[in-house]
Design a protein that fits this description.
There is one protein chain. The chain is mainly alpha-helical and 119 residues long. Helix content is 61%, strand content 11%. The protein is built from five helices and three strands, in the order H-H-H-E-H-H-E-E. The chain has a three-stranded antiparallel beta sheet. Helix 2 runs antiparallel to helix 3, helix 3 packs across helix 5 and helix 4 packs across helix 5. The protein is elongated.
């Protein structure tokens, strides 16, 4: 029983180390620095997107590549895309679910902060 528990504990440590390593990888695709085109191509491969999701992706990808993070209110993204705030939120949620972006909390003004997820 003790041997089995020790083996499980060691396996859990290996899993935790692996997850931590994934979270700390830089958000750069294999083969070089990220470009807007490479980020969008990777996202296109990763998920089947609706027109709305693609509209949001095209607006946020250049900012993520250039600045390393996106600090814009949902209202600002909605104004740039012509979508509702609610739909922008749903599109960002889909991009998060499919590991395209990840949340890094919120800015001082309350806007969400997103970064590219490691690929």
């Amino acid at each position: 029983m003790l041997t089995a528990q020790t083996a499980m504990a060691e396996a859990m440590v290996r899993i935790a180390d692996r997850i931590e390593g994934l979270a700390l990888r830089p958000a750069v695709p294999f083969g070089g620095p990220a470009t807007t085109a490479s980020v969008l191509a990777g996202w296109r491969e990763r998920l089947s997107v609706t027109e709305d999701v693609w509209t949001v992706a095209v607006v946020i990808a250049p900012v993520l590549v250039e600045k390393g993070e996106l600090r814009e209110s949902l209202g600002s993204i909605a104004a740039r895309t012509g979508l509702t705030v609610r739909r922008v939120n749903e599109c960002l949620r889909m991009l998060r679910r499919h590991a395209c972006i990840r949340s890094r909390g919120g800015a001082e003004d309350g806007a969400p902060v997103y970064v590219l997820n490691a690929v």
